[in-house]
Amino acid sequence: MPTPEEWRNLLLKRLDERKGRITQYIKYHEGDHDTRYITQEFREAFGRMFSGYVENFCPLVTDAVRERLAVTGFRLGTDLKADEDANRIWQENGLDSDSQLCHSEALVKSEASVIVSPFRSEWPRPNAPLITIEDPRQVVVALDPGNRKIRQAALKSWRDDEGHLHATLYLADAVYKWRSKQKRDDFTLENWSEYVKVEWDQRQGPNDQEWPLKHDLGVVPVVSFVNRPRLDRTGLSELEEVMPIQDAVNQSIRNGLLIGEMASFPQRYGINMEPEIDTATGQPVERYKASIKRLWLAPPPSNGEPESKFGQFPAADLTPLVKWVEQRIQHIATITRTPPHYLLGQSGVMPSGESLKATETGLVAKVREKQRYFGESWEEVMRLAFAALDDPRKNVHDSEVIWADAESRTEAEHVDALVKMGSLGVPNEALWERWGATPQEIARWKTQQMAESLLAPVPLTVVPEVA
After folding, report:
1. Is 401 helix (H, G, I), strand (E, B) or coil?
2. CA–CA distance from 30 to each of 54, 109, 151, 339, 344 (Å)?
3. What is the per-residue burial (b if ≥16 Cβ within 10 Å, else e) of 413-440?
4. 251 pLDDT exceeds 60?
5. Which pLDDT score, from 0 to 100, does residue 164 have?
6. What pTM, to 2 d.p., does this model score?
7. How far is CA 230 from the centre of its chain?
8. Which residues are registered as beta bridge partners of 71?
9. Distance from C-alpha of 252 to C-alpha of 448, rounded to nearest angstrom
10. Where are the alpha helices (H) located in 3-145, listed in sequence order?
């Protein structure tokens, strides 16, 4: 088993190995795309005229999935109190919004991590442990080669405002903290390999009483959210297959801008005309300018010279280029299972009714697959949260994440389906949950329903007189 120092150096190296790919994902998501296809001749002729212009479809691909990944609650076995406590922990950590950030990080960067603090002193709320979402460029998790469900170690590393490097190692029984002796301004997320060359001091926080900090969770309190996981314990970004097509779209759009600049207007010409030369500059004088108030007159031919003529070249037709770009965008939609009307807008066919449902079938299936993988990770986060509170519900393994409906439905369709389910005897609380109500709304409705039943008038029973 590696020593803590060996784990630290090993995991720093893993961060360094994957940071390049993650950085590329981030750049494409933010619109900073590769321009290697721009030729030197293009740069010399037009400089940076169109270099910063891109049509960025990458955020649409990831947002289409993220928008449908919404956690609405937890179900931990048959213990309703556990459901309420899990929801309280969720709310006290602001995970309604932070969970969306976690999903977005995983979709774009291929992975995100969640740290559950095993120490009460790190969070001022005694009934909820601190749960934080982490950047995969700062946090890495090592899995057991023999059993990928077992986390052996995890590391978080960053540089503070003073220039010191920090590294925190999470093991199954302790947390080790270091800070570099040196101050370096050039230690950034872009050169992780330099981390292993520094000298480290033990670091203690303001509330730390010992080094290392011991805990009794029995597991590493860092959970990975891996997008499109594979058996080699790595994942893929949703942008993996999109990036080369995005480059092709950018190149075509730049070509279209150049055509619009150079050949989208009819170019005029004159035949058998001697240009007038400016004696001061030696350059031809531009005598013929288009205007509604100007008439072009050429001198009559003399001495058998041919007659002067005017004409114009046809403007360039951009329709084939537009169709080619739309075809590439359609390929993005097909490969990523993103509905075409998300990407093409009004240029595509806007579906409705049953056609809308059919168009979004691939996206819905994709989202439900994410719900299964991400749901397992959120369940592990909640077990760690109960473990940090020394709560016996840390051993509940028949838990379930409640997700918002991934399908697009009109309110009328949804309510009609729920009414039919109610006629089959499905309880109101289950119907409310399927409708998309949060645990807080369901609890409030139950209370209101109970209060209304108590205030309802009791019908009088008339007893007939006995003769």
Report:
1. strand
2. 11, 12, 32, 21, 20
3. eeeeebeeeeeeeeeeeebbbeeebbbe
4. yes
5. 87
6. 0.80
7. 19
8. 403
9. 60
10. 4-30, 40-46, 58-66, 80-92, 95-109
